[in-house]
Every structure is written in structure tokens, then in C-alpha cells.
Amino acid sequence: MSWMLETYEKKLGIQAPATFTGKPLEIGGSLGRTEATGQGGVYVLKAYAKVKKINIKISTIAVQGFGNVGFYFAKIAKELGFKVVAVSDSSSGIYNPRGLDIEVLGKFKEKSGAFKDCPLKVGSKYITNKELLELPVTILVPAALENAITISNAKKINAKCVVEMANGPTTTEADQILFERGIDVIPDILANSGGVTVSYFEWVQNLSGYYWTLARVNEELKKTITKAFLDIDAIVKSKHISYRRAANYVSIKRIIDAMKLRGRV
User: Fold this and answer.
1) CATH architecture of the domain with residue range 32-265
2) Is 218 strand, coil or helix?
3) What average pLDDT does the chain have?
4) 114 CA to centre of own chain
5) Could you tell me whether strands 184-186 and 125-127 are parallel, antiparallel, or unpaired per DSSP bridges?
6) Segment holding 86, helix H or strand E
7) What is the rounded average pLDDT of the residues 236-246?
8) Could you tell me if 93 and 131 are in contact, meaning their C-beta atoms sit under 8 angstroms apart?
9) Which of 19, 74, 147, 148 is the most buried if burial means most Cβ atoms within 10 Å?
10) Which residues, 6 or more positions from 243, have their beta carbon under 8 angstroms from its beta carbon?
11) Percentage of the chain lying above the pLDDT 70 cut
């Protein structure tokens, strides 16, 4: 992003920090951008738990994928009181029904790179990514690759809710199976939108020339993404449809309403 901004500004001969987002702090980036996607996902989960009256203290989470998004989601969820019982990378998964120390695992990943080489603590065991997806947990978080949940394993999902932190982790056919089984799927276009939301905040800060504290970034993110969830949840309840269909309904309706107001339709 730094190089792209430099090239663009040289070409135009002006300063234009708002042209690119995701920049380092030193040249106009926003505080909170690194963890924003995971942070936003947890805010959505917290709003969902409140609406569904889920007791956070006795809820369990399994996270497939331990990159930037998976790590921060697991870390922040644990700080809120959720019990993260399983995480995985491409090499292996680690499961402990009593809960995992996400900070320790994060430091291990940073130094050593693969969970298959991670020394296990008492009560922990290695599991495959396939086994992680089928664990009996409250919340399943696919935060790795697309098409993780397909028609072949959708009937084996034992979570009460799936929070999509990866892009497209659930196929269309699997999504329908989960809906029919009463398993809520919080779609990727909502759940992992924290990153692009804070990129928008970065753009706003660049345009104003005034930069926010981390506390304000997180508070604005919380307000924005929680409202988005509640708007979608209202449609779920009124039309008795899935969260994915409700999210698409809200987004398309807003576009059509704007087009009507402009006289385009």
C-alpha cells in the first residue's frame, strides 16, 4: 500500500493519502486495522448471542484457520469470556474441551509456523481440519478457505451457529442443509466486514486530517457492525429466512431504494 500510494502521488504530483487504505500508521493508516476483521466478527457474534440469549460463559468455539483473522477472532472471543476449544492451521488442529491458551498458540505460530509441531499440554490432542468442523461446539468459525462446508459434511456439522470469517466457506447446497437443520449461518458479507469497515474509517480520517484513538475506532466499528447485524436480524424474524438471504435482501433493497430516489427505476 505504501508503494502504491507513493507511485500514485508521484504521478499526480499531490498528496492523496485517502486513495489507498490498509496503509502503515506512519503514512496515514488507521489504528485497529490489523485486528479489525476478527474484532468485527466477534462484535457480530456478541450481538447474535444477545439476541439468541446465549450464555457466553458456557459457550464453546472452534476456529478453522489461524491466520490474522482466525487468531484475532479467537483471541478477542476468549477475552470476552467465550471458551475457544479448537483451532487449526493447514497442518493440523488442536483440541482441548477445557479451552486453549490463544496467546501461547499465537506466539508458537509466530516462531515455529505449524501446529503439527506444537507441544501439547495435558488435555489437548491433535485433530484434523475435518474433525474440527464436526466438533460439538456452540459456534463454528471457518476462517480459512472457501468451500470448507459442503454437501458432503453439512449434515455432520454439530455447531448451533456458523460464523463465516473466511470468504465463501459454505457452499450454496450446504447452506440450505444447515438452514433446514436449524443451524444459523452468519454470512461472510456481514461477519468478516470489519476489515473493510475500518478501511472506510481510515479513508474518513485521511480526508479530515484528524486521526482517531484505538478506542474510538473500535467503538465506531462496534456501533456500525452491530447495527448491520440487527437490521439483518429484523428481516430474519419478519420474513423467516436465513441470515444470508436476509443480508442479501437488506443490501439489494438499499441499492434499489437509492436508485428509486434518483429516478433511475
Assistant:
1) 3-Layer(aba) Sandwich (3.40)
2) helix
3) 97
4) 22
5) unpaired
6) strand 83-88
7) 97
8) yes
9) 74
10) 184, 185, 186, 187, 190, 232, 233, 236
11) 100
Rounded distance, CA 149 to CA 120, Å? 27
- Confidence at 112, pLDDT banded by 50, 70, 90: confident
Amino acid identity, position 240: H
User: In the chain, which segments carry CATH 3.40.50.720?
Assistant: 32-265
Instruction: Report, as an integer, the average pLDDT of 39-67.
Output: 97
pLDDT, one tens digit per residue, over 181-221 is: 999 999 999 999 999 999 999 999 999 999 999 999 999 99
Which of 73, 74, 72 lies closest to 96, judged by CA?
74
d(CA 37, CA 63): 14
Burial class (CB in 10 A: 0-12, 13-18, 19+), 196: middle
d(CA 42, CA 239): 25
Question: Cell triple for residue 195?
Answer: 476489515
Map residue 31 onto helix, strand or coil: coil
